[in-house]
Amino acid sequence: MKTMIRTENLTKHFKDFVAVDKVNLRVQAGEVLALLGPNGAGKTTTVRMLTSILRPTEGRAWVAGYDVVAESTQVRQSAGVLTEHHGLYKRMYTEEYLDFFGQLYGMDAQQRKARIHELLHKFGLDQASGRRIGEFSKGMRQKLSLAQALLHSPPVLLLDEPTSAMDPESARLVRDAIKSLRSAERAIIICTHNLAEAEELADKIAIIRRGKIIANDSPQSLKQQLLGEGEYRATFRKALDGRELPLPPGVNVTSLGADWFRYQTPSPELTNPRLLQDLLEADFLVVSLQEVPRSLEQVYLHAVNTVPSQKTWGKTSEVCTSKTSEVFAPQDIEKILNTPSEKEAEDVG
Description:
Elements: E1 3-14, E2 17-28, E3 32-36, H1 43-50, E4 58-63, E5 66-67, H2 72-78, E6 79-82, H3 94-104, H4 109-122, H5 138-150, E7 156-160, H6 168-180, E8 187-191, H7 195-201, E9 204-209, E10 212-217, H8 219-227, E11 231-236, E12 252-256, E13 260-264, H9 268-281, E14 286-291, H10 296-305, H11 313-316, H12 330-338, H13 342-348
Parallel strand pairs: 3-8, 3-9, 6-7, 7-8
Antiparallel strand pairs: 1-2, 1-4, 4-5, 9-10, 11-13, 11-14, 12-13
Helix pairs in contact: 3-4, 8-10
């Protein structure tokens, strides 16, 4: 599978302030990576370096195979970017605006016209094609900015808060559009504070804190590694009334109710069928046996607020799968999470 976005020890200093610190990321074609973190963590700075807007202080990055420093023109041609601040030309008409950018991308007139009509229809802006952008609502401007990012069908998309300021219906439209943009030839990075959106759209989650990547893996793997074993709930049609449960080895009951109990097990694929069979043979009327949902919000809060005590944290914080991966030991994570940055120290002082 082709690597579309790759960084190696990507670093950016603003005088003495380290905004991005040795970030290693790898996004394959067909993947969506959600980059999460508190305000000021380094998300936007990372995206700006990936789009050749900011020059890295140290390290390297490639977008669609092009070096962001040495081949900045090719990087800009290969990436579609939705920034937090759109910079829309409010006096221009909708089609005029998109046609202008189509010309900058080197698209011919027929191609521009067809693509503009396609995108306006895709984002429900057909009726606004003859209006000036200054008349648009925030949500409409967001959709127009996304249409502009997609105009030249780029192989890499870098989207900063793609559904910000949108009503629920428009946000759903945009999320569905992002899903439809998945392809074997395209990679997408989304920066968002909407954790439910990140979990719905992303194949991988990278969490950045004070410029460092502190976790990077699939949502399911992060839940396992940061939150521990999954929890399951068995629910019965009748109250248990103190009956002893026939629990096979490996089942650890975590809580018990009138007609249900929760438990953990290190091998659910083996234990759950055995448990269900034992319960039924003992005449327990089982209504359901299912995993208790665990959200990405729990993972995120654990990663940014809690110093992990388990040795598996190093695997969780492996920032990419290449030989250049940086793995943080527990003492490193504690330093990251608890030591104020130089900027914070200045603010306190």
